[in-house]
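We emphasize that the prediction below concerns an isolated chain of 405 residues; any contacts that depend on oligomerization or on bound cofactors are therefore not represented. The input was used exactly as deposited, without trimming of termini.
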Amino acid sequence: MNKMIRDALQIRDEYTSALEQRLGFDLHPANLATRNGKAYIAKKAEIVSQINEGLTKKRADFFASEYLRNKEIREGYLLYYMTTNLLKIIPPLRELAQSKFLEQTTALRILDLGTGTGAAVWGLLSYLQEEKKNIPVEITLTDSLEENLSEAEKFSKFFISSIGHIGPLPSFQKFDLRNPKQLPEKIKGSAPFHLITMMNVLNELDESNDMMLFEMIMSLLDEHGAVIMIEPATRTESRRLLRFRDLAVRNGATIYTPCTRQEGCPALIKEDDWCHTEMKWERPPFIKAIDDIAGTLRLSLKSTYMILRKDDVTLSNALASMDKLYRIVSERFDEKGRVRSVLCGENGRYEHVMNKRDLSESNGDFQNLERYDLVKLSGSEVREHDIRLPKEAQFSIVLPNLGAR
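Result of the prediction step, given as a token string:
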């Protein structure tokens, strides 16, 4: 396996530079070690602790307060949460690229719904820069709060000047997703969009409106377009996205990734199950400094994501795979005499076990797998409570969890 594919995700220097310009503070480690730097980080860590408590313990009240209207909270969110969120879009984009998605048009029209401070867009632009994709992009960012749109517009000027964005400057449109039928004419007029993104938005919306939301999104999507939805990796928020996934499938959408099946999600069968990925990243020094004080500890990045399409294209057929593919949906458990992990595929979601005495050249990848790797498997043995990989089983990693570069 190409070791580079297993490398950790990295924040681009252009993003850090834009963040420094927006906040008016030097985030270099040497400056963080000064008295002024320590005081700055301590203040931001206090705000991060406040946000973290709101997002985890007082969620309903915190969202109702429209917390990002507060300037200090918004700047703390910018520094910490925007930074820990933007890279989460990279693995799904890498998987989408397997279908030659970016080669299908000469200009990419993008709609970001529920922009917040813009993490999904900055991650997308970072990806295009990283992959040297010189395709022109036209971006529309939407949010219900004027403060968020103003913040995203302010940051965009710093970031876009750093990366050398191709295409017109982004446009910003007020749109409250709590009323999906009240779609602004400007957004309708810009449709169809090749790519629609939603990051950490669905969990804030009333589930009773999901059908209207789905219909609105699909009405704006190009025939060969894609919708990337990303939610937190917690059980409640992950299952929220999985239920939307099933609604989308029932109403004709195709799950491009991460699923390798189009039937109902088997993680919803048991109340304690959910589905998420975990991504390695190089934690910036300023994030570590905040973690050390706030106790938030973002050693890795976690999310639940999904890509919807209209055109029946899936990641499996984009890879031209004739084999049945599976997604690893748990961590790998290394025990004294065996290795086990949970795989999800056409046949459902089951624990798979390999005794270490059965390790062979054909199944050796099983001892190297990571959560959300895409794999192929044949020659397994179905048992009452699990599925065993004998010595002759064929098991290989087709696409690692961070996608292919």
